[in-house]
Design brief:
Elements lengths: L3 E10 L10 E2 L1 E5 L2 E6 L7 E14 L1 E6 L7 H14 L2 E8 L12 H12 L6 E6 L4 H12 L5 E5 L28 H17 L8 E5 L3 H14 L4 H8 L2 H18 L3 E4 L5 H13 L4 E7 H5 L19 H12 L5 E3 L7 H4 L20 H12 L3 H15 L16 E5 L4 E2 L18 E2 L2 E7 L2 E5 L2 E2 L14
Helix pairs in contact: 3-4, 4-7, 5-6, 7-8
Length: 489
Amino acid sequence: MTRLNTLVKNVTVVRPDAGADDGEQLDIGITDGKFSRLEANIEADEADVVVDGRGLLAFPGAVDGHQHWGIYNSLEDDTDTESRASAQGGVTTGITYMRTGKYYLNTGGPYREFFPKVLAASEGRSFIDYAFHLAPMSREHIEEIPSIITDLGVTSFKIFMFYGSHGLHGASADQSSFLMIPPDERYDVAHFEFVMRGIAKARAERPELADQISLSLHCETAEIMTAYTKMVQAAGSLSGLEAYSASRPPHSEGLAVTTASFLADETGLPNINLLHLSSAKALTAAMRMQETFPHVDFRREVTIGHLLADITTAHGLGGKVNPPLRPRDDVEALWEHMLAGNLDWVVSDHACCKDEQKFGDPRDDIFAAKSGFGGAEYLLPGLVSEGRKRGLTYKRIAELTSWAPARRYGLPTKGTIGVGYDADFCLVDPSATWTVHAEDSESTQEYTPFEGFELNARVTDTWVRGQQVLEKGAIVGAPTGHFLRRGQP
């Protein structure tokens, strides 16, 4: 029998695709970066290194399908620091959204020229494995979709439905230089249709990859947000996160979900991911569209931020994000849908924005602040803490954070603790009670909307392909994360 490189004993193994709802007592054997044995009572002398799991839970590493490295800081820096923060949250694979235009690399042009710069900036810097989603912003990008899949190894795409006529941050954005697309093109509903047709065509040309090729949509309606922003600002009766939520009302989400779903049916594109749904109205629209178009394989995403915080409990204006944090009734609606099985995965939407960039002038003006915040470090701790209180099993949590996104996004070696899979996993202490403080995060973000929140679970140790990157809460070793090319033979 092949000798084990690492043996982890004294753990309860949680698997989304096998075993009991709350895990089972198994030892974990690792050889050459893969899980090679899952058995009870493996002898210690069969391994080079033996790790005492201290009676903790062993979860598959989270596949965080929604991050934004390099949106506000350099991609080089974010790949380092934000992958460290990810490991703190049990994340072993991060998929980050990337596009041309303002922010990120602040450049336009074809992806055949743009994407190699992305890979060069991130190479050798990440503590976790990583992949990318790309956004077709122009006609040229739509034409590139087949080569993006075949040559660049990217099989997932994104549409930001409000970008054409509303700013990234609301009143603070400069649209004139934002998109960096040819002057005779428009980023509008017609463009969204043509993106869908381009992806549907690519699926038809690559039937062996069709299930891995999908389109994700940020569902908000620009015209409604623009009108409501003016109304909220003119009235002046609301402030802070409450004002921002009112300026981007939930029916804006619901209408965009409906438009996206109709276009998916019209264009014959079945693999649609509805991102970071934040409200009861958005979920109502999403469920109605599933009934209306049963042949469309919808996936519905929610973020840990929208599950944990609301407009009154989030710490300060650092909680500004798109779509906004909502009132408590919407948070409870998300949990109701979660428990009913209507949500497919939980992500962080991690977008590190340092204090000096986040807050505008005056500092207390929500419309002058930037959108987005980090949160990958709280992904598994937050979901285990709150989910267990509400009746989620450990197995379901592993499905939501690991198995489901790995399957959808074409990562066949990720998502579970199983023989032959990459040895990506973490140890979770389900009895650790601790208070969130931004200063304890490896992220370079100096604040968090979760400041002062009490969580009842903590990730203590994390491994990526058998290499330990987090040990008893501290980052260890060197960055050895791989770029994951998808859609390859």
